[in-house]
Amino acid sequence: MSEACRIVIHQVSPGEYDVGAPMKHKHVCYNMLADAATVIERQPSHVFQAGTRTLIITMSMAGTVDVGAPLPPIGKCVEMLAKARDLIERFDDDAAPVMRAFSNKLVA
Predict the structure, then answer these.
(1) What does the pLDDT average to over 15-37?
(2) DSSP code of 48?
(3) Please, are residues 40 and 77 in contact by the beta-carbon 8 Å criterion?
(4) At what angle do helices 26-41 and 74-90 cross, to 10 degrees?
(5) Which of 11, 21, 57, 94 would be a feasible disulfide site paired with 53, CB 3.0-4.6 Å?
(6) CA distances from 80 to 1, 54, 62 (A)
């Protein structure tokens, strides 16, 4: 698969997330997050692994969205997608809190 875009969501601590995404292209991010939710809902239970704190979402050049296994537990995935959407919505919002630099865990 030739990758066109990637969103990485990493849980730093309970309720706190770092998100690496093409923030200036919000509509692409929203579509990827929605497609990722559908992909996650259809996964068999063995791909979910307790303790997993990173969710990687990729989109191919053809527009196909996939998620990297192992996945965090399903409830955590839902929370991560919602938090990522919130962060992406706040990007370039003058009222938004100052954003931190990406965690080195996202770059690795």
Answers:
(1) 91
(2) B
(3) yes
(4) 170
(5) 11
(6) 24, 9, 25
